[in-house]
């Protein structure tokens, strides 16, 4: 276990506004690229698009692309942010938004982050077709400008995301997820897109392969830490955009539970596995699993792993020359650990 005292993470995390500040002007330009990429003369498509654009969100992924472009621009002695950087940010956001729309259909979710989902307002058929439209617009954005390297990076991330989701479904049915499988799943499901954001930022300013691999490793650390934080929310944080205990209701085996099951006596572990496998769970069942995870140190160990990953990302970032963009990314590592939703 790694204790927080050993981590190279700022004690006082930056706010998201402070993290975004070095690329505030670039984000304004990005929004124009994003809006243009979503334009359509089909009235229904335009209506759904306007609804999506009003739900701005945190824009973490475009921020990652643009901050990395600035940080790597100093290394490669290129202009900090190029036209390709804006296209990279728009491409990532288009494909990410498409996957979220499709996820809401698959999960039958009526709300995302407190607002109605596309499928809740316009039904599944429109939602699926809208997600397909976003995917096609992302592909065309890259192809029209011959951004083949960017397209390759992002397409590989989408492939990994799909494989990760399917592996999680397969393992949830069999309830045989160990730590190695868990990390493979979240590496593909979550970290792959974070990696893609950083690599696209580096590619967009002409950074070489060594730099691309360096930022890929940072993205992997940040993505894994981000997902573990999400998994911890299931065990008690309020107002995080998903109901308490939803992972358990969906039979998802996350790190806190996996750690606790490994540490528990065999008979108790079998009893908890049986509870997790149940199709429906009462509030008492969920409380029993929560108590089991806490007693066996699952939450503490998951937090330690998350903090260690954020610390690894921070150390890798410190290998880059000092800059506002680099420091903002270091602040993001601390933000991921400390975020409340």
Task: Annotate the secondary structure layout.
Elements lengths: L15 H5 L3 H14 L5 H12 L5 H17 L6 H25 L3 E2 L2 E2 L1 H27 L3 H27 L4 H26 L4 H25 L12 H4 L5 H9 L2 H12 L5 H13 L2 H20 L6 H15 L3
Antiparallel strand pairs: 1-2
Question: Could you describe the 3D structure shown?
Answer:
- By secondary structure, the protein is mostly helical.
- It has a single domain (4-338), classed as Farnesyl Diphosphate Synthase, CATH 1.10.600.10.
- It has helices at 16-20, 24-37, 43-54, 60-76, 83-107, 118-144, 148-174, 179-204, 209-233, 246-249, 255-263, 266-277, 283-295, 298-317, 324-338; strands at 111-112, 115-116.
- It has a two-stranded antiparallel sheet.
- A hairpin with a 2-residue loop joins strand 1 and strand 2 (115-116).
- The protein is globular and about 60 Å long.
- Mean pLDDT is 85; it is low at 1-7, 75-79 and 238-242.
In DSSP terms, counting alpha (H) and pi (I) runs of 4 or more, how many helices?
Answer: 15
* Average predicted confidence as pLDDT: 85
Q: Biggest sheet, open or closed, and with what strands and sense?
A: 2 strands, antiparallel
| CATH architecture type | Orthogonal Bundle
CATH class: Mainly Alpha
How far the N terminus sits from the C terminus, by CA atoms, comes to 25 Å
Q: Tally the structural domains.
A: 1
Q: How does the overall form come out from the CA principal axes?
A: globular
Radius of gyration: 20 Å
Helices and strands, in order, run as HHHHHEEHHHHHHHHHH
Question: Helix/strand/pairing class, anyone?
Answer: mainly alpha
CATH topology: Farnesyl Diphosphate Synthase
pLDDT < 50 stretches? 1-7, 75-79, 238-242
CATH superfamily: Farnesyl Diphosphate Synthase
Strand line-up across the major sheet: 1-2
Strand coverage percent: under 5%
DSSP, total strands = 2
| Helicity level | over 70%
